[in-house]
Amino acid sequence: MSKAKDVLIVGGGIAGLSTAIGLKEADVSVDLVELNPEWNVYGVGIIQLANALRALAALGLAQPAVENGFPMEGLEMFAPNGHRIMNQPQPKIAGPNFPPQNGIARPVLHKILQDAALATGLNVKLGITVDSIEDAGAKVAVTFTDGTSKDYDLVVGCDGLRSQVRQLVFADAPEPKYEGQMVWRYNVKRPESTKDIQMYMGHPKVGLVPLSDEMMYIFITDAAVDGILRVPNEDLAVEMRQRLDAYGELFAEIKVQITDPDEVVLRPFETILVPAPWNRGRVVLLGDAAHTMTAHIAQGAAMAIEDAVVLTEELKKQDSVVEALAAYNERRYERVATLVQLSQQICECERDNVNTDKIPGLMMQANKIAAEPI
Ligand SMILES: Cc1cc2nc3c(=O)[nH]c(=O)nc-3n(C[C@H](O)[C@H](O)[C@H](O)COP(=O)(O)OP(=O)(O)OC[C@H]3O[C@@H](n4cnc5c(N)ncnc54)[C@H](O)[C@@H]3O)c2cc1C
Fold it and tell me: Ligand 1: which of 159, 166, 293 to mutate, judged by most atoms within 8 Å of the beta carbon?
């Protein structure tokens, strides 16, 4: 048994890039294949709670994230009439130099991770994926869709919710589950008064998330929808605006900015939790490929970065790949599973409009778990 020398990362999103960055001092040769030939991400934002900043700090990237994002102190909740009902400051767990949380545009975070990953000298191939993966014990034989093939000591599946690696290697894994709720997002101008995450607890729920001095995004979560909602492109902006009618004039200044259907990001909430262990031999899953939670607790990307930090720490520390993967499973599964379940509970309350008074408590519980050491 020996340490990994040749590693393949499948998927160049948050999990894959973080893994490549985490491996930079591990004396390994890293190949990364990314299906999207443009290697870009869509344009709205991402909430980074304190544990996300802590994980980024472990990769040496919390500083650029905060410098290029919008540092925040906590969460404010409002009644549908705009009256503030809660102001919950969050703890600073990433260290004294970092805020409790940060808002950042996805393309900005992607660029920070991409630049740092490319600086490690990894070998990137765009527009291809894996065709077959055969774990032969000491090595994994991989063929790619461009007709090439290579043997690896470790294959890391970071290819998201509909992971090809999972489908090829984890025959018994569950399918992604639609949780019956859709979310609408759009970038708008940030008013001076929005300095923290602000949530308006009416129906539908509305949230505002600062991303920079100039910009924030608005999200709206629908009530129960049977089946994934498909809206013709030309109707997206109109339909998103209509959802704000329930709030009267409260969002009038935002509404007039929601005009471009191409800028509306409408997504279903979907989940998956692959049962432990997240490896089959020398093939391991990270990020959304292993576990996707709903965005209600803003932890999906945070967990992907944490996965990468933990896996790469263990690969450096342990004497063999086998021991590193065992330690990765041990440190990750329970923590992530609990958060997946909490996100589903909150989603259910919102979706079915039941026990909505429990939502703030469930969110605080998720934040408390997330703040625990990894
Ligand atoms: C509406 C919404 C809001 C969210 N908000 C937040 C938030 O505020 N905070 C937070 O922490 N998380 C949030 N998340 C979750 C977060 O977006 C995900 O958890 C995170 O993107 C997971 O990263 P990943 O790298 O595992 O997967 P992905 O981001 O899906 O990246 C996978 C990568 O693999 C590539 N790929 C796919 N298939 C293949 C293949 N076969 N071969 C090669 N490459 C492939 C893709 O092109 C992509 O580059 C949100 C999610 C949603 C849906």
Answer: 159
